[in-house]
Design goal:
The complex is a heterodimer of chains A (146) and B (393). With 146 residues, chain A is mainly beta. Helices cover 0% and strands 47% of the residues of chain A. Chain A is built from no helices and ten strands. Chain A starts with 5 loop residues before the first strand and ends in a 6-residue tail after the last strand. The relative contact order of chain A is 0.23. Chain B is of the alpha/beta class. Classes of the chains: A mainly beta (146), B alpha/beta (393). The structure holds zinc ion.
C-alpha cells in the first residue's frame, strides 16, 4: 500500500501534538475569550485590555448541530470525484469555543445532536501532486469511551 | 427628526434577463417609482443606492452613479451603500436619514442586481485571512448547509418536522402566484415540496430561495412634499441598521464563542428590528404584516420568535393554522417573499419597501392583508449586517 504525503489544507490552523490533534487558536488572558483561528488581538467589546496568548483547543466537544453537504460545494471548497456527500458540524468545545468542522462518520445520517465528539485530522481530497490534503474533523465518541 | 413618506414605489419584475443590463432594469424601476410618486427626475435631490456585488457599478459598486447617468446627470449627490444582502435596506436607511434630517426633501432609493447562475460563493475574496474564504476552503459549508444546521438545532429543540417546513413553502406560493412581479408563480403541494431535491437535510430545493435578477426603487420625501402630492401618504415611521453582537453564538467564520446567555440567533436582525419597533413606538403584537428575509423557510419560524412576534416554539402552529397568510393574525411575506421571487441580493431591501407601500395603500390585490396599517421590513447580509423599517398609513 502506498502512503501518500499529507499536507494541511491551510498552515497554522491545526496540528498533531504529543497529546493528540489540536486546533491552534488563542485566548485573551484578561477576559478568557477563546479564538480560532489565532487572533493577534481580543475582539470582545467588553474586554478592558487585550492580552493574547496562543492556546490549543480540543479534543473533546459536543455536537451543537450538523448538516449534510448533499451537492458538490462551489469553490474554494474541494472534493474527490465522484462527489460523495459529507457531513459538517458545529461543535461546542469544552473550552467555550464553538467551531465549524467536517464530521468524520461513515453514515452522515447517523449523527445525533448533542453527541460527544472528538477531534481528528483527516484527508479531504488528494491534490494534483498526489498529496492527501487534510483538515480538522470531529468524530462521535464510541459508546463507553467517554 | 422630520416625518418621512414613501411617495412612490416601482419594480422591474424578478426573473432571468440575459439581454438586459442591471442599469436598464434599475431605470424601469426608477421610472415606475417616479411616475407613481408624480415626481420628475429633475425633482430628485439625492440618490441612495445599493452597491451590487455581481453587476454594473463600474466594478466598484457605483450602481447609484450608473442610475444617475442613465436618468440624466443633474449633479445630485449619490450614496452607494454596501452591506451584503442587506444593501437595499441600508440604502433605504440612508435615504430615510437624508429626508428625516432635513438635508433633502425628495430622495430616490434604488437597488438592482443580476445574479450569476447556480449556488454562489459567499465570499468575494480568495485571501487566507478572510474568515468566509477559510470556512469554505477548510470545511466547505455553503449557505444552504449553514441554514440546514440552524434548522436541525431547531428540530431538536422544538420538534419541528419536515412537514412544518414544507408548509411554509406551500404558503409562500399560494400567495406569490398572485404577484405579477414574482418569478415563480405556480402553486406547490406538500408532495411537490417534499419531493423536490434534497439540498441539505431537512431543506429541499423548494424550501430555499434561488437567485434572480431584479430591481426596485422608491421615492421618499418630507411631509410637506407628500401632502402636496397625495391625501393618503404612507409613512416610513422608522428605519434602522444594526450589526451582529460579539457573543450571539451564530457560527460565522471558523469559530466563535459559545453563548453564555440567550439562544443562538442572528443578533443583527433582532437588534435592527428592536430598534425599528422602538423608534416607531410600535409593539411587536401591533404589526399587521411582516416582510422578512426568507432565504430559507427556517427563517419564517425563527425570526418571528427572535423578535417577540410570537412565543418560542409557537411559529410552526401559526403556520399550520394559516395565521401567516394575508388573512391570518400574523401575515408573513404576502409578496411571496424570496421563495417566489428568488434573491436579487442587494435589491431585496428596496423590494420589501415596495411591497409594504402597496399593502398599506391597499393596492396588493389578491394578496392584500385586509386593513393593513402597520408593517415591518427586515433584511440580513454578510458581515453581520441587518436592517429594518416600520411603515404606517
Ligand atoms: Zn479580552
Amino acid at each position: 500500500m502506498t502512503t501518500h504525503e499529507r499536507i494541511p489544507v491551510m498552515e497554522g490552523l491545526f496540528a498533531e501534538t504529543a497529546e493528540g490533534p489540536r486546533l491552534l487558536g488563542s485566548r485573551c488572558q484578561t477576559c478568557s475569550t477563546p479564538y480560532f483561528p489565532r487572533s493577534a488581538v481580543c475582539h470582545n467589546p467588553d474586554c478592558g485590555e487585550s492580552r493574547m496568548e496562543n492556546a490549543d483547543f480540543g479534543p473533546r466537544g459536543r455536537l451543537w448541530s450538523c448538516a449534510i453537504q448533499n451537492y458538490p460545494p462551489p469553490l474554494p471548497a474541494r472534493y474527490e470525484e465522484p462527489y460523495i456527500p459529507y457531513a459538517v458540524g458545529v461543535v461546542d468545545l469544552d473550552e467555550g469555543l464553538r467551531v465549524v468542522a467536517r464530521m468524520s462518520v461513515d453514515d452522515p445520517d447517523s449523527l445525533e445532536l448533542d453527541a460527544e465528539v472528538e477531534l481528528t485530522i483527516e484527508p479531504i481530497y488528494r491534490d494534483d501532486e498526489g498529496r492527501d490534503v487534510t483538515t480538522w474533523k470531529f468524530k462521535p465518541l464510541q459508546p463507553g469511551r467517554s | 427628526m422630520r416625518d418621512v413618506a414613501v411617495l412612490g414605489a416601482g419594480m422591474h419584475p424578478w426573473g432571468k434577463f440575459a439581454d438586459r443590463s442591471v442599469t436598464a432594469m434599475c431605470r424601469v424601476a426608477t421610472e415606475a417609482a417616479l411616475a407613481d410618486a408624480g415626481v420628475a427626475w429633475r425633482d430628485v435631490e439625492a440618490v441612495a443606492a445599493a452597491s451590487s456585488r455581481f453587476s454594473g457599478g463600474k466594478g466598484w459598486g457605483l450602481n447609484g452613479n450608473d442610475v444617475v447617468e442613465e436618468m440624466g446627470s443633474t449633479g445630485i449627490p449619490v450614496y452607494n451603500l454596501s452591506a451584503g444582502c442587506a444593501a437595499g435596506g441600508n440604502a433605504f436607511n440612508i435615504g430615510w436619514l437624508l429626508v428625516a434630517s432635513g438635508a433633502h426633501d425628495c430622495v430616490l432609493v434604488v437597488g438592482g442586481e443580476k445574479m450569476p447562475k447556480g449556488f454562489i460563493q459567499t465570499s468575494g475574496l480568495e485571501e487566507d485571512t478572510d474568515p468566509e474564504h477559510l470556512r469554505q476552503l477548510c470545511v466547505g459549508m455553503p449557505g444552504p448547509t449553514f441554514w440546514a444546521a440552524l434548522c436541525r438545532r431547531r428540530m431538536k429543540d422544538f420538534g419541528t418536522s419536515e412537514e412544518d417546513l414544507a408548509r411554509i413553502a406551500v404558503k409562500a406560493h399560494r400567495i406569490g402566484k398572485h404577484n405579477t412581479n414574482a418569478r415563480f408563480r405556480q402553486e406547490f403541494t406538500m408532495e411537490d415540496v417534499l419531493g423536490s431535491a434534497m439540498v441539505s437535510y431537512p431543506l429541499h430545493l423548494y424550501e430555499i430561495c434561488p437567485v434572480s435578477d431584479g430591481a426596485a426603487a422608491v421615492v421618499i420625501c418630507s411631509a410637506d412634499v407628500a401632502r402636496k402630492r397625495t391625501t393618503r401618504p404612507v409613512w416610513a415611521a422608522s428605519s434602522s441598521v444594526a450589526t451582529a453582537r460579539f457573543d450571539d453564538g451564530l457560527p460565522r467564520g471558523l469559530g466563535t464563542v459559545v453563548p453564555q446567555a440567550g439562544p443562538t440567533c442572528h443578533s443583527e436582525a433582532s437588534l435592527a428590528v428592536g430598534k425599528a419597533l422602538e423608534s416607531a413606538a410600535v409593539a411587536p403584537t401591533e404589526l399587521d404584516l411582516v416582510e422578512l428575509q426568507d432565504n430559507t423557510v427556517f427563517y419564517e419560524l425563527a425570526f418571528p420568535e427572535d423578535w417577540g412576534l410570537c412565543q418560542p416554539g409557537e411559529a410552526e402552529r401559526l403556520v399550520e393554522k394559516g395565521e401567516t397568510l394575508p388573512t391570518g393574525k400574523l401575515p408573513i411575506n404576502p409578496s411571496g417573499g424570496f421563495l417566489c421571487f428568488g434573491e436579487a441580493t442587494t435589491a431585496m431591501g428596496v423590494f420589501q419597501i415596495c411591497e409594504l407601500t402597496w399593502q398599506l395603500r391597499e393596492q396588493a390585490g389578491a394578496r392584500q392583508v385586509p386593513g393593513a396599517k402597520i408593517a415591518l421590513a427586515q433584511t440580513l447580509g454578510l458581515g453581520g449586517n441587518a436592517t429594518a423599517a416600520v411603515l404606517k398609513n
